Amino acid sequence: MSVVARSDSVVEELQTIxxxxxxxxxxxxxxxxxxxxxxxxxxxxxEHIADIAVLPETAEQVSEVVKIANAYKIPVVPRAGGTGxxxxxxxxxxxxxxxxxxxNKILDIDLVDRTVTVQPGINMLKLNEELRRHGVIYPDDPAxxxxxxxxxxxxxxxxxxxxxxxxxxxxxxISMQVCLPTGELIEVGxxxxxxIRKSSTGFQLKQLFMGHQxxxxxxxxxxxxxxxxxxxxxxxxxxxPDYETAYKSTGALAKSGLASLxxxxxxxxWKVNYLRRDDEAYIPQPPELRCVVAVAAYGTMAETxxxxxxxxxxxxxxxxxxxxxxxxxxxxxxxxxxxxTPLHGRTPDGQVVPMxxxxxxxxxxxxxxxxxxxxWHAIAKRYIDDYGVxxxxxxxxxxxxxxxxxxxxxxxxxxxxxxxxxxxxxWDAWVQCKREITEVSLKYGGSITACHGSTxxxxxxxxxxxxxxxxxxxxxIKRALDPNNIMNPGKNRxxxxxxx
Amino acid sequence: xxxxxxSGDPAVVADGLQGNGHxxxxxxxxxxxxxxxxxxxxxxxxHKFCREVCPVMQVTRNENHTPTAFHANIVAMEKGHLAxxxxxxxxxxxxxxxxxxxRCPNTLFTGDFYRHRTRTVDVVKAMRALAxxxxxxxxxxxxxxxxxxxxxxxxxxxxxxxxRVRDWAEGLDVPIGxxxxxxxxxxAAFYRTSVxxxxxxxxxxxxxxxxxxxxxxxxxxxxxxxxYVEHARTLAEHNLADWRSVGANRVITLDPHDYIAFTVDYxxxxxxxxxIEILHITELVAELVREGRLSLTQPVERVVTYHxxxxxxxRKGIYKSxxxxxxxxxxxxxxxxxxxxxxxxxxxxxxxxxxxxxxxADEIARRRVEKxxxxxxxxxxxxxxxxxxxxxxxxxxxxxSIEVRDLMELVADAAxxxxxxxxx
Amino acid sequence: MFGFRLxxxxxxxxxxxxxxxVMRLDDIYEIDPDRMQVITQQHMPVSDTxxxxxxxWEHLAWMHDHWADNVLSGEGEDQAx
Lengths: 500, 424, 81
Hints:
The complex is a heterotrimer of chains A (500), B (424) and C (81).
Chain A: H1 2-5, H2 8-18, E1 23-24, H3 27-31, E2 52-54, H4 59-72, E3 76-79, E4 96-99, E5 106-110, E6 115-118, H5 124-131, E7 136-137, H6 150-156, H7 163-166, H8 169-172, E8 173-179, E9 185-189, H9 205-208, E10 218-225, E11 227-228, E12 232-240, H10 243-254, E13 261-267, H11 269-278, E14 291-299, H12 301-317, E15 321-322, H13 325-333, E16 356-359, E17 362-364, H14 369-387, E18 390-401, E19 404-417, H15 424-443, H16 463-467, H17 469-481
Parallel strand pairs in A: 2-4, 3-4
Antiparallel strand pairs in A: 1-2, 5-6, 6-10, 7-11, 8-9, 8-10, 12-14, 12-15, 13-14, 13-18, 16-19, 17-19, 18-19
Helix pairs in contact in A: 2-4, 14-15
Chain B: H1 10-15, H2 26-43, H3 55-60, H4 67-78, H5 84-87, H6 99-103, H7 105-108, H8 111-114, H9 120-133, H10 139-151, E1 180-183, H11 186-191, H12 193-205, H13 221-226, H14 229-245, E2 250-253, H15 256-270, E3 277-280, H16 281-290, E4 303-307, H17 310-316, H18 320-328, E5 333-334, H19 353-356, H20 358-373, E6 379-382, H21 385-397, E7 403-406, H22 407-414
Parallel strand pairs in B: 1-2, 2-3, 4-5, 4-6, 6-7
Chain C: E1 15-18, E2 21-23, E3 29-31, H1 46-67, E4 70-71
Antiparallel strand pairs in C: 1-2, 2-3
């Protein structure tokens, strides 16, 4: 494959389309478009580089590149920010990596029909800095808000911290232009109207092109919701003496019926202990503080102020001790940067070491939260004791359903991995740990992944099980849209679609 | 348990022999050993909060130019995948503004706690030095540094020479030497002399005694930024000796690049012996105004916005004093943009960008001017003379044009001082 | 106090706060240096520590303002009936 990809004729054809400045074959260009923040087998880095990286500027250029890939049967790996957590943007079989970061323009702002049309390489924070003067916002708010890009949010089917209020990426994208695996540019939306939010014309194709991890095409343009900029924000953090009380308080808050409720987050005991290591909000907290629940609301002043009062009542009535404005507001604002920093890592004897971070993101029902917590921590402990290069950074449970805080939870366990020590044995141990964690999620009727994706080793093996009959449908669709298996092959076990 | 490499861990030792089949050379090995922890601190995270604040990335959108890549390359070099020849060109693309390393959560959220932060500026400088020491030089930087070592000042205009380093002060009767030295940056001494003259007259007006150096050489900052460490040191040693020879114990800087050189580089060169107090002009002038030693009474009828100089705001956290000064100037309409938003702003003038990649520097400056223009102002005020040339050029290019003034020029205007000099 | 003096940049000695946490500068927590033997601490002058702490709070305030015009309090007037 790489011999064909690197041939002069392929490179020349690409240069004709993009200009030679934007067709990169040198080593540093390829090695720096390999990993994403998820734990990475750094000892096998050279197995995860593309053969060529291209930096297109227009949808037409993307289309031409994909057509060339089909002609030569070369894999294409779409890459937006490279900030995802399930290796969707990591090359596994070489090929042409399509890096869309140059496509970062705002194409149209429509304040009357409340849409903004953008290219996929734009970051949400930068977009919202531009939208602010118009009194509107695009409220897609992951922990990677300052760094992830719209195209990647679509490709991964992103989750937003304030999704209970505003929805997630797939609810906030109205329509988009997609480059199919065979190179055609098509429009998909709810029906055919670019600015229509709800339609029953034809099949619901838009959701098909959400969360496919770049295996069904490349988004080249997207039309997004413009929401009124919030007049008010409210965040409250409550402390609890035990998990049971915090868990019940979470349920009460989530089921409160408040329309401006943006999210409820439950921090378990391990998470609070982890935060005590280096977080100024938690270091001075008394030992009786074992768990925390964070709640946030956004909206007009008229609705958010009464909501804040209801939240304070419910929190206190269900056993929560308000941690104060400084902690609440400071910690809430830091949620947009809540990627774990490496020095949170500790060896078993308490030494600080830089660790990479696995962020689990299963989707679990409320009723199963306590059991998942116990079983996951038991798994983590075994691997920590046996290998000494892992660390348990505790668990969060976040309200998951778009506009539905009463529903399911994104359940996260954060596992630190001492990457400098990684070799094949450690990596295999890590994958095994990951498999055990996934088994628990499926055992309780959950989903492997609420938002990151299921493309990594340790997750992908289970996709057929979780999807059941749906996996056959997935394979048929993949084969129909991508006859040559060039669009991000090797992800989600979809190579099986081609086994005749 | 100290250095992992010494443990003989087979994973680490073996990896160093991958890729091209032989390990990194001695220079690279030393470099990688020194920067390994920093490299993994970024590589093991890789979340890229640095990317959208980077002025270069905003223009090129090329991942090779990210702080992430700057750190990842070191890990790749450790493992034998890349050599300095493969990456040297990528490191041209950095203005060393410090936005990335400040914005990085490893600094912003936990850097103070662990006494361990992201140090992209140092990484870029160190890699550029490795390149130079390995014989991989950038042609325009090489010529710039050679010219600086020859004239002892930077070739900011044709005909720069030591004989002319004090020409800007003609008619001002500024003495040589004394306890307090005013260090007049090369760009102010030779190019935009209005800044030097305005600063001198403002200080005199407020009753601050100061003198000039016997032989003011370039601070050495640019040479250090471009990877010419020995040359930077030579310049620094001269300057410290000059200060000491006239009994100086305090230096006032009027440009942030010098402030950085004297408060970051010089302590690294000289260690505990470095006993010179460094004051930056904006902090000094803000205090003079506060204390009533400087009266700003002449209205300056302009609609202005302030450009936070990167090396003041991002790298030193100095953002209050310039604003305090602007608010004390009568007649001014000051449309501010907060200093956090300005973490992602830059003039493109630093890190040698204008010298080796002028088209990128120009575009960074153009975008900065456009952001100012959005506010409907007539004047962009800066406190960094290096930023003023590129900003003024782009400001003049557009219609309507935007004038670029130095903060000290406006202060002198408000104090009714006629400073003259060449103002561009 | 403004300006740079090398002598003033040296941080005070640490005093213990909790297990693994110390304090040198007022109200600024730090890791117990004994915990940083595998990865060593950097030289960090006082002014750098202060710059980071100030920047953190300024950034958080910026983030609030980025998302909404007003931040409601969980205590005091906003909670009065």
